[in-house]
Amino acid sequence: MTAGRYKKVDAFMQSDTAFGALKDLKQNILKTYNRSSDLANMFAQGEIAAGVAMNFVMPRVKKALPSAVWVDPQEGSFVNINTINVVKGSPNKELGEKYINFVLSEKIQKDIALAKVDSPVNVNVILNQKQAEGLTYGGELIGSFQDVNWGEINKRKKNWISQWNEIFAN
Hints:
The chain is mainly α and 170 residues long. The chain has helices at residues 2-6, 15-25, 36-44, 58-64, 93-104, 106-114, 129-132, 139-143, 150-168. The protein has 2 domains: 1-78 and 149-169, 3-Layer(aba) Sandwich (D-Maltodextrin-Binding Protein, domain 2); 80-145, no CATH class.
């Protein structure tokens, strides 16, 4: 979608043009990676000076290269949301819902955030600047996220993966 925006087209309507942007940029891409440890190692070994990652990777990168700095794109970021669900037809639906309420409680959300396991989704969780470091937290950051139409992405997922692999797998 970002590549489509770069080419000034709707990636859903003109995916070939959007993927053409990725082909154009390929010469500047050292490697696509599968594990956050790959990215951290490339920084530590001086192979790269910049990388694209989700924010949870940053502590590992900082450990490998203490001078590394996180930069939020001025265009905004896409958000990837972790979910917790009760499976339809579950024999223990009420117990599952009780567990979800427990996980979403203010106390547990704050504990999870302070342990840097995940960012809080409970709006009653208050963190200071130090506690919020490395987390997806605060109205300004949340407001900068770009909307994602997962229904449209899922319709095209197989084709988009194929196009991605055609560009980057060789």
